[in-house]
Design brief:
five-stranded mixed β-sheet; alpha+beta; 14 helices; about 525 residues
Length: about 525
């Protein structure tokens, strides 16, 4: 289950940060360097805002500790890198691996880049990659990896820099993108983990962990041993705790940070600042949706779920909360996707009368009471209130439940019948992390043989297969007609930056993650 956590858009008070960076007694220092130490050389240190409060996910540096597989992408990706790397266009290119190929539906061949090493100089060869995968698979894990991880049957080292991954099912094409994801982070333990495993891990990415001050900062410095270090044009990256909301733009205006995610409500104010710039991304994984517990009660009834969909005014929400910059979500793909099924346009066009009729047919003519847990961020709280008001028109009373830890409270402990996520996932993960048994994101254990089989069909096909379009059409019809969730609106991801930061780009990962391989900050 991947939750909005890798975005440059979550943060805590600037006053605390200004003092805490220098004075905190809870700073984890790696290699004896003080937090926030000044950089020198050709490039400068890039500061960015990030929510370090841990209300969404704990801060973790060890992949086997991740609560959700995307909990820590923004700061762990530059530490570990991947065998492949996602670019701003969404393409996958070689990184720690020089080549990776889906040989057949159950096999992937990988060639590790010759001579690469971890940041401490330890070789990262094929045997080390195998050990890294096995460490991720065999150690206790509080969250759940992508389901295809469990289908790995063996990893065969065929040479110093070559290995073969074998799967029990036809999921090689599904697993392939995970070579650029956190499931494939190769963390090397360098000492005892009895006290804090995060203190004794190194990676082979372009940056190294320098210090971590709980609730305040994460400081990374450039790794000179990274195989492509010359392509990295910042001396380090410092994540400072800034809360979501007005403080994000204020942190940019004040100069506290150089790069920051911006709420849609602050886009006009950002564009009015002559000393700031903006960059927008509109990925198919950036959408507001309501996952539903369909196992019991009124929400187990299809007509009830359809009624809630008809009672959701997507166009009005887009205009009010997204300033017209998004688009109504009629399906799991936006209209810009090649997989979008045009027959679904306006499938749940706002219709209170129809919603009431469906509720009456379901046996709830006077409505019912239910609960909704939004991800703890201002825009999600706003949307939760809007949905509460809209659904009240059809007699549905919604209690908004606040989360202390969203993943645990909603997906593990089921403290609400519905959630509110500001982002989903791309491609097949729209299904495997939400509706297929085995993932923590499958709220209340939904399990349908028809959807399971359609998902397997997609998993068995290479990305270039002409059959994908027809299968995705069937999948979209099933998910939407069965109202498995309430898809509200697709939303842009907007990043603000100081004018001296060059090539500000995000990759279309969950929430958008800064592309550290292209961004540049002169000293």
């Amino acid at each position: 289950m991947k939750i909005k956590a890798g975005i440059m858009a979550r943060r805590t008070t600037m006053a605390v940060m200004a003092v805490g960076l220098m004075l905190s007694a809870q700073v984890l220092v790696v290699g004896g360097a003080p937090a926030g130490a000044a950089s020198s050389g050709k490039y400068g240190n890039l500061t960015t805002g990030y929510d370090l409060s841990e209300t969404i996910n704990p801060i973790e540096f060890d992949p086997i500790q991740f609560t959700s597989s995307a909990c820590c992408m923004a700061y762990d990706w530059p530490i570990y890198a991947g065998l492949l790397r996602e670019t701003s266009s969404g393409a996958l290119v070689p990184d720690l691996a020089s080549a990776a190929k889906v040989v057949n539906p159950t096999t992937i061949d990988i060639t590790v880049r010759p001579g690469i090493v971890y940041s401490n100089g330890t070789p990262l060869n094929a045997a080390a990659v195998k050990a890294g995968f096995e460490r991720n698979l065999t150690n206790p894990h509080p969250g759940v990896w992508d389901q295809s991880m469990s289908d790995i049957t063996s990893i065969d080292v065929t040479g110093t820099d070559s290995l073969v991954m074998n799967f029990s099912q036809a999921v090689a094409s599904t697993f392939y993108p995970l070579l650029a994801d956190q499931e494939s982070f190769m963390a090397l333990p360098t000492g005892s983990s009895s006290a804090n495993p995060n203190e004794n891990l190194v990676g082979a990415g372009p940056f190294m962990l320098k210090s971590y001050a709980q609730g305040q900062s994460i400081v990374l410095v450039k790794n000179p041993k990274y195989w492509d270090a010359s392509a990295i044009h910042v001396s380090g990256v410092s994540f400072l705790n800034v809360p979501t909301g007005p403080q994000q733009l204020t942190s940019l205006e004040s100069g506290l940070v150089k790069v920051e995610g911006i709420p849609d409500s602050d886009i006009p104010a950002l564009n009015a600042q002559p000393n700031l710039q903006s960059s927008s991304l509109f990925p198919d994984a950036s959408y507001f949706f309501v996952p539903i517990c369909k196992s019991s009660g009124p929400l187990a009834n299809l007509k009830v779920r359809q009624a809630l969909n008809f009672a959701t005014n997507r166009t009005a929400i887009n205009n009010a909360l997204l300033y017209g910059k998004g688009q109504p979500a009629w399906s799991i793909f936006p209209t810009t996707s090649s997989f979008y099924d045009t027959s679904l346009t306006n499938v749940y066009a706002f219709n209170v009368k129809k919603a009431k009729t469906l509720l009456a047919q379901a046996g709830y003519p006077h409505g019912f009471s239910t609960s909704l847990m939004p991800l703890p961020e201002p825009q999600d709280d706003q949307l939760a209130t809007v949905l509460q008001q809209e659904w009240k028109q059809i007699g549905v009373s919604v209690q908004i439940v606040q989360a202390s830890n969203y993943v645990t409270d909603l997906y593990t402990d089921n403290k609400a019948q519905m959630g509110l996520n500001p982002e989903g996932l791309p491609g097949i993960q729209k299904l495997t992390t939400q509706y297929i048994p085995g993932d923590v994101g499958d709220l209340c254990g939904y399990n349908n043989p028809t959807l399971n089989n359609l998902t397997k069909e997609v998993e068995a096909l290479p990305p270039s297969s002409p059959k994908l379009k027809s299968i995705w059409t069937k999948i979209q019809a099933f998910v939407i007609n069965n109202a498995l969730s309430i898809y509200v609106d697709f939303a842009p991801i907007v990043t603000g930056a100081a004018k001296d930061v060059k090539n500000v780009q995000n990759i279309p990962y969950v929430g958008g993650v800064l592309n550290y391989w292209v961004v540049s900050l002169p000293a």
